[in-house]
């Protein structure tokens, strides 16, 4: 008898592999090899993420505020470079530290991915997802304003010989469990069922206590609450 998928299941037909996830999990010493297919690397041709954020309940920052916070986007404040463009550390007038993710005009990701990330992350609240504080859209300038994560990304620990030694077994286990909780929330417990589609070590950020938070939802795709299967055709993400 053919197996009938449960309504609680979420199946996505994709191509590719789990190289990025494999990297995250294999940084735990002694973890056995894992081989499988990725559920995060393709995009449906019918995706329609919209072009506006007018209907979102999200704080809008003006450009002068962000310019001042980042010291006019100085190189000293630059803390990374993503698919969207450079990321800067900033400090608001009330002393709050922020991370400013800018959309570069030469970025291989575009306005659609920017709007997609705003719409998704604004609706999500979980301790293992990076918190979106607001955005700045002024003319050609588009920026996402996030909480600042003092320990940077997970890959900066995994691929650094000195920093990797700072992660003892309990901390590594804590990080992996946090990532798993974040994914469980996205797949089952959030108002939207979400497939991240670009989960990798550089998209997992660590706070001052080395607690992980999943970031970068530009490639994510949503599913209906009762939807368990989706067809995909175009490759996206990192491979």
TrEMBL record:
Q: Which reaction does it catalyse?
A: L-seryl-[protein] + ATP = O-phospho-L-seryl-[protein] + ADP + H(+); L-threonyl-[protein] + ATP = O-phospho-L-threonyl-[protein] + ADP + H(+)
Q: Which Pfam families match?
A: PK_Tyr_Ser-Thr
Gene Ontology cellular component annotations, sorted alphabetically = plasma membrane
Which UniProt keywords are given for this protein, alphabetically ordered?
ATP-binding, Disulfide bond, Glycoprotein, Kinase, Nucleotide-binding, Serine/threonine-protein kinase, Signal, Transferase
- Name recorded for this polypeptide: non-specific serine/threonine protein kinase
* PROSITE patterns in the cross-refs: PROTEIN_KINASE_DOM, PROTEIN_KINASE_ST
- Provide any one GO MF term from the record: carbohydrate binding
- Which EC number(s) does UniProt give? 2.7.11.1
Which EC class heads this enzyme's classification? transferase
The record places domain Protein kinase at: 73-239
């Amino acid at each position: 008898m053919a197996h009938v998928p449960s309504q609680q299941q979420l199946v996505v037909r994709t191509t590719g592999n789990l190289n990025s996830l494999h990297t995250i999990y294999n940084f735990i010493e002694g973890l056995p090899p894992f081989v499988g297919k990725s559920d995060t690397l393709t995009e449906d041709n019918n995706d329609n993420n919209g072009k506006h954020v007018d209907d979102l309940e999200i704080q809008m920052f003006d450009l002068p505020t962000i310019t001042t916070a980042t010291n006019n986007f100085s190189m000293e404040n630059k803390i990374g470079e993503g698919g969207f463009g450079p990321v800067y550390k900033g400090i608001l007038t009330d002393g709050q530290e922020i991370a400013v993710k800018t959309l570069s005009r030469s970025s291989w990701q575009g306005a659609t991915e920017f709007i997609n990330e705003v719409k998704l992350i604004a609706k999500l609240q979980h301790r293992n997802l990076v918190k979106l504080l607001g955005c700045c859209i002024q003319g050609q300038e588009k920026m996402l304003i996030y909480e600042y994560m003092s320990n940077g990304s997970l890959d900066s620990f995994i691929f650094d010989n000195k920093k990797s030694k700072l992660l003892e077994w309990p901390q590594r286990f804590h990080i992996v469990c946090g990532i798993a909780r974040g994914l469980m929330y996205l797949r089952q417990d959030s108002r939207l069922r979400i497939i991240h589609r670009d989960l990798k070590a550089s998209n997992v950020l660590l706070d001052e206590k080395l607690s992980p938070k999943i970031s970068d939802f530009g490639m994510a795709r949503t599913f209906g609450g009762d939807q368990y299967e989706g067809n995909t055709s175009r490759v996206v993400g990192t491979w």
